[in-house]
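--- STAGE predict ---
source: upstream dedup step, 1 unique chain passed
mode: sequence only
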Amino acid sequence: MSYNISEIVSNFCIEGNIAAIVPYGSGHINDTFHVKNSDPALPGYLLQRINHYVFKNVPALMGNVQLVTNHLKGKLAQIPGSNPAREVLTIVSTRDEQSFFCDKDGHYWRMYCFLKDTKSYDMVLTEQQAYEGGKAFGKFQLLLSDLDASLLHETIPGFHNVTTRLDRLNRAVLADPKNRVKDVLSELEFVIERAGSMATIINLGKEGKLPLRIIHNDTKFNNILLDINDREQCVIDLDTVMPGYIAYDFGDAIRTIINTAAEDEEDLQKIKLSFPLFKAYTEGYLKGACSFLSDVEVKSLLMGVLLIPYIQVIRFLTDYIEGDVYYKIHFPEHNLQRTRAQLQLLKKLEEEYDVLDQIIQNIVSVPQ
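--- STAGE serialize ---
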């Protein structure tokens, strides 16, 4: 898909002149471009096309982003030594003072200030990176813990609701639009066997034992920017920030940190668990978050570690059956390969559940 990027950029209040516009990042959902400034003393920008197939209500989404970023900046401004402009995304308004722009073809665009001298990783390489990532998401949740979750819109209804995800998978199986169900019978059996146990978190929420909080909902490691010294800098990709359970964020982060292989690894034998990275992330996370978490929430963390890979199995499998309508794919069976990789990861996590639980308990027992 091609766009007149220069024309789109002209609708935003930027400083200086454009030197270059290049594709940026590795996200599955939105199209992102780095707008480089011809004057090195002036900021660069990130321009994104918001995927309105995935995010049906863009004004509500951007309302969430504005609310959350304003709250985070306000809280950080009260902390000595903090730099809100570097630690929180800054929205660049349009010329008519809106947070997004809709072009003549109905595509939605937004712009952020580019945070230079930062980096992200698709895979965690060191324990320091894992620890700093845990700190980043723990602090993120802590700073938002006093913001009323009911003020935020649900940008993707039922995003981590396992019941909703299973219902959609069942509908896809019944419809079987691409005649692919026959090829995934063992994967479907795996999902069905665990459907009851994977409802524990949502059931605890319904019983009032787990509070709804404002969470990120997409805590894969490349949604954290680290500085040049691999210290936590900024949490990014705020499209799915909305009410949810703490275990969702912890589980999704661990899903990408503990895995020694890529999310879509073809060779399943390469998928192993890194206990040092798990321990380092958990230490960093609880350093920031432990002060506001309830005992039940702490106990739910490991439930989330199993649940989120399970949900990813469902999501990738559903998309494969439906004909690859949600995730970007790079070859015809990419979503099936992702499904099998996440399924293998979940098997490994189940095998080592007691070891992971003991690591969490040892960290919790030490005063933060």
